[in-house]
């Protein structure tokens, strides 16, 4: 059975019972937080769900010395989870300008690949793989057409471009949701992303927060949002 954890007005999950035990043990989820099982609307505390069952500690090799860290500190953050791409958002903007926008599409795929490592259930790369070619194909076809044929096909090309743009927006918000679920769950930094900023600035806005997360994972210090 899977479970969802509620923080404010948002739900995060699904998590297995083992996930809940692990995150409570690491301090990323508090026993007093509210949760519900999949398919039910009744909310109870996480403590009521996991009961007194202790989380199994990871195996250690003979003679090794276990390391301890404050929950949420740099050692805990640098666990098995991947580190975001490290190119500064200012350089991403510069390369996008120098390549007339082409680099932005490449970087979206890089960011989407990272997000799918965090939340394998999210599919931003699939949406980008559909949306970006639609926009490029429609733009190229419009430029290649001429005369009467161009006028007749212009509406079709515009429709294809619009469809591609809509799919890309879906990809942006798929990334937003996946990042908020992960960074309010397994690696809890209370990440809240603005929908307006995601819509208008997408890859730059994501990269700004990725740099914040990289700093936190290496130093334990999190810059204000």
Task: Characterize the structure shown.
The protein has 225 residues and is of the alpha+beta class. It folds into two domains: 1-54, Dna Ligase, domain 1, CATH 3.30.1490.40; 89-219, no CATH class. 57% of the residues lie in helices and 8% in strands. It has helices at 17-26, 46-50, 74-77, 89-98, 102-118, 124-144, 147-182, 195-219; strands spanning 2-7, 10-16, 34-37, 44-45. It has a four-stranded antiparallel beta sheet. A hairpin with a 2-residue loop joins strand 1 (2-7) and strand 2 (10-16). Helix 4 packs antiparallel against helix 5, helix 5 (102-118) packs antiparallel against helix 6 and helix 5 runs parallel beside helix 7 (147-182).
| Proportion of residues in β-strands | 5-15%
- The total beta strand count reads 4
Query: What does the average pLDDT come to?
Result: 82
Class derived from helix and strand content: alpha+beta
Based on CA atoms alone, the radius of gyration comes out at 22 Å
Order of helices and strands: EEHEEHHHHHHH
Total tally of structural domains: 2
Largest sheet: 4 strands, antiparallel
Uncertain residue segments: 52-78
Count of runs of 4 or more consecutive helical residues: 8
Q: Order of strands across the widest beta sheet? A: 2-1-3-4
| Helical content (DSSP H or I, runs of 4+) | 55-70%
Anisotropy-based shape: globular
N- to C-terminal separation? Answer: 35 Å
Protein topology:
Layout: E1 2-7, E2 10-16, H1 17-26, E3 34-37, E4 44-45, H2 46-50, H3 74-77, H4 89-98, H5 102-118, H6 124-144, H7 147-182, H8 195-219
Antiparallel strand pairs: 1-2, 1-3, 3-4
Helix pairs in contact: 4-5, 4-8, 5-6, 5-7, 5-8, 6-7, 7-8
């Amino acid at each position: 059975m899977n479970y969802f954890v509620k923080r404010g007005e948002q739900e995060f999950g699904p998590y297995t019972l083992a996930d809940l035990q692990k995150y409570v043990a690491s301090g990323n989820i508090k026993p007093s937080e509210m949760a519900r099982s999949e398919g039910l609307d009744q909310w109870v505390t996480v403590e009521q769900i996991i009961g007194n069952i202790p989380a199994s500690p990871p195996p250690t090799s003979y003679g090794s010395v276990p390391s301890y860290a404050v929950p949420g500190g740099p050692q805990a953050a640098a666990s098995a989870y991947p580190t975001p791409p490290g190119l500064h958002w200012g350089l991403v903007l510069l390369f996008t300008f120098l390549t007339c926008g082409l680099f932005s599409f490449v970087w979206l795929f890089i960011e989407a690949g990272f997000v799918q490592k965090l939340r394998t259930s999210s599919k931003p790369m699939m949406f980008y793989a559909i949306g970006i070619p639609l926009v490029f194909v429609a733009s190229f076809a419009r430029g290649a057409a001429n005369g009467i044929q161009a006028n007749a096909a212009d509406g079709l090309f515009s429709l294809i471009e619009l469809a591609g743009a809509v799919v890309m927006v879906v990809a942006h918000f798929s990334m937003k949701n996946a990042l908020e679920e992960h960074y309010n769950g397994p690696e809890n930094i209370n990440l809240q992303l603005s929908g307006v900023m995601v819509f208008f600035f997408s890859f730059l806005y994501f990269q700004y927060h990725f740099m914040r997360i990289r700093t936190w994972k290496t130093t334990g210090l999190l810059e204000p949002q």
